[in-house]
Amino acid sequence: MFPQEFIICFHKHVKIEKLVIRSYFVRTLRIEKSASNEPVDFEQWIERDLVHTEGQLQNEEIMAHDGHATYLRFIITSAFDHFAAVYSISAEGTAVSNPS
Predict the structure, then answer these.
(1) According to the model, what pLDDT value does residue 97 have?
(2) How far apart (Å, rounded) are the C-alpha atoms in residues 75 and 83?
(3) Coil, strand or helix: which one is 1?
(4) Which domains does the chain carry?
(5) Which pLDDT score is estimated for 100?
(6) Is the confidence at residue 9, as pLDDT, over 90?
């Protein structure tokens, strides 16, 4: 059943400074980024092992470094159960004019 993945798109190129991810039963999460105009050429950016929180949502706060992106691909590589869920993703940062 794993990996499972999804891609989010920003309307402009952004510099991400912080991500907050609310999930359930996610064991290992990998985040890849792309600065392309299309969702291609992803590079691995962040990989985290999340703490199992029985009966409540996982709340993972990630302070980002080198977070220039137009697209983010989230890949759940393993979970604590057969089913896992990502309930919300919040990204903080600024729009930038030139990718770097």
Answers:
(1) 76
(2) 14
(3) coil
(4) 4-95 (2.60.120.260)
(5) 54
(6) yes
Inter-residue contact 36 to 99 (CB < 8 Å): no
The tokens of 59 are what? Answer: 């709340």
> By three-state DSSP, how is residue 90 classified?
strand
**Residue that is written with structure tokens 């999460």 in the block:** 29
Burial 63-89 (b: 16+ CB within 10 A, else e): ebeebbbbbbbbbbeebbeeebebeeb
Q: What is the pLDDT of residues 67-90, one digit of tens each?
A: 999 999 999 999 999 999 999 999
Tens digit of pLDDT for each residue in 29-69? 999 999 999 999 999 999 999 999 989 999 999 999 889 99
The CA distances from residue 2 to 36, 57, 62, 92, 99, in Å, are 26, 20, 23, 28, 32
For the CA atoms of 94, 35, 21, 60, what is the dihedral angle to 10 degrees? -90
Answer yes or no: are the C-beta atoms of 27 and 78 closer than 8 Å: yes
